């Protein structure tokens, strides 16, 4: 998409959603691994999170774009066939194994001490123990608790976790070991060369600047149109260096600087971005979906002021414990406080709140249908509605 120097907010929304896969052709029939690969191709990474209030977050972005699928298929692609691997990107994330060379500069910086202090402290204070932990991983993949000497907490300086767990995380951050997942999302550590294919590991390590530019180009493709800070946030790159790389990509013609109506900052358009006439979708989004994970972008692009209230005392929560945004067309129209009650076999809608100015009548029917599909996806037999929120009466009538 070239020749556009000014975009309306509606155009920017549609470009952003198309880049995220919401304008792709719907799936006819069963979702298979090709469809999941297509979603990964759009998003570039899936953020991980262990909180399973509705469903663990990595499973929800594909559902939002594809509808129901078998979540174990995602696990097989990532952890059994090793097409994707865990790395520290936008927080802990799954990425295609082919991207491993682009993250080596982060691992090199971690080795120099630029990572979490407790990991660095263990590496410096207990090098012999870290070597022993690595020797055990060489023998076989293992969880922290399976180390011959996991060293439960013995001192205040490394916190509440075992020394073995921290040593494994250090080895992960410097790129020596990788992670697969056992049942219930438990980490299993293995040598990185047994996870990432040899032909990928043999790729020469690109210079930092080149790797950062490639990551920003991926960010731009995934976001469609974005500010420099949006692009930098996607892979959590260093801010000063990231801004320099954005300028270099713009100079090289790999980004097109544009103006978005209402934005204070310059925007950058990916040259291959598409502008669909409309976005035809009604879906919930994970709190860690790329559409909303950058709260400043969600506010700027959709006027959607969003935060997770998990750590807010119950009496002070505005919307609820685990609230999912609702995308309808090109707008974020509502938020739902949801919980999968696995014991009862139901999806509970604890709260339903429409955004200001939304025509609730046009939203409720497609949203009801979508919640039935979400219930099926999370293994619930029915949707049960409570009575909280200005949208609830519309959903229950």
Describe the structure.
The structure is a single chain. The protein has 15 helices and 14 strands. With 397 residues, it is of the alpha+beta class. It has a five-stranded mixed beta sheet. Strands 1-8-9-7 form a four-stranded mixed beta sheet. Strands 2-4-3 form a three-stranded antiparallel beta sheet. The chain is globular, with a radius of gyration of 22 Å. The model has no long low-confidence stretch (mean pLDDT 95).
The overall pLDDT average reads 95
Strand content: 15-25%
Distance between the termini: 44 Å
Main pleated sheet: 5 strands, mixed
Helix segment tally: 15
Lateral strand order in the biggest sheet: 10-11-12-13-14
Rg calc: 22 Å
Helix content: 25-40%
- Based on secondary structure, the structural category is alpha+beta
Find the count of extended strands (DSSP E, 2+ residues).
14
- How would you sum up the global shape? globular
Order of helices and strands: EHHEHHEEHHHHEEHHEHHEEEHEEEHEH
Low-confidence stretches: none
Tell me the layout of helices and strands.
Layout: E1 6-7, H1 9-19, H2 33-43, E2 46-47, H3 60-66, H4 71-80, E3 84-89, E4 91-96, H5 104-111, H6 117-125, H7 127-139, H8 163-173, E5 177-182, E6 186-191, H9 198-201, H10 208-223, E7 225-226, H11 228-234, H12 239-251, E8 256-260, E9 267-269, E10 282-284, H13 295-302, E11 323-328, E12 331-341, E13 346-354, H14 360-377, E14 382-385, H15 392-396
Parallel strand pairs: 1-8, 13-14
Antiparallel strand pairs: 2-4, 3-4, 5-6, 7-9, 8-9, 10-11, 11-12, 12-13
Helix pairs in contact: 2-3, 6-8, 7-8, 10-11, 10-12, 11-12
């Amino acid at each position: 998409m070239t020749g556009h120097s000014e975009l309306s907010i509606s155009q920017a929304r549609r470009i952003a959603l198309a880049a995220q896969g919401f304008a792709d052709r719907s799936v006819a029939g069963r979702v298979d691994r090709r469809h999941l690969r297509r979603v990964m191709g759009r998003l570039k990474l899936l953020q991980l999170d262990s909180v399973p209030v509705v469903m663990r977050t990595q499973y929800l972005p594909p559902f939002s774009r594809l509808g129901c699928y078998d979540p174990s298929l995602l696990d097989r692609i990532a952890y059994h066939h090793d097409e994707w691997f865990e790395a520290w990107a936008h927080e802990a994330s799954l990425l295609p194994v082919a991207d491993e060379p682009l993250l080596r500069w982060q691992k090199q910086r971690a080795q120099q001490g630029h990572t979490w202090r407790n990991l660095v402290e263990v590496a410096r204070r207990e090098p012999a123990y870290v070597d022993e932990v690595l020797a055990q991983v060489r023998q076989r993949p293992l969880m922290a608790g399976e180390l011959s000497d996991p060293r439960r907490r013995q001192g205040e300086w490394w916190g509440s976790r075992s020394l073995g767990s921290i040593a494994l995380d250090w080895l992960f951050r410097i790129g020596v070991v990788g992670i697969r997942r056992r049942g219930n999302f438990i980490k299993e550590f293995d040598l990185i060369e047994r996870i990432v294919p040899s032909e990928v590991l043999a790729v020469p390590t690109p210079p930092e600047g080149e790797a950062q530019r490639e990551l920003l180009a991926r960010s731009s493709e995934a976001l469609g149109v974005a500010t420099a800070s949006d692009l930098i946030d996607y892979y959590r790159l260093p801010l000063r260096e990231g801004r320099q790389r954005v300028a270099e990509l713009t100079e090289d013609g790999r980004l097109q600087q544009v103006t978005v109506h209402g934005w204070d900052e310059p925007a950058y358009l990916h040259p291959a971005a598409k502008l669909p006439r409309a976005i035809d979708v009604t879906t919930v989004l994970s709190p860690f979906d790329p559409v909303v994970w950058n709260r400043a972008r969600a506010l700027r692009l959709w006027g959607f002021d969003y935060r997770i209230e998990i750590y807010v005392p119950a009496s002070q929560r505005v919307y609820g414990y685990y609230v999912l945004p609702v995308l309808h067309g090109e707008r974020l129209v509502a938020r739902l406080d949801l919980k999968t009650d696995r014991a009862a076999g139901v999806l509970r809608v604890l709260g339903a709140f429409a955004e200001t100015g939304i025509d609730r009548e046009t939203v409720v029917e497609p949203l009801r249908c979508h919640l039935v599909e979400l219930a099926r996806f999370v293994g619930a037999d029915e949707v049960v509605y409570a009575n909280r929120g200005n949208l609830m009466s519309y959903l229950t009538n």
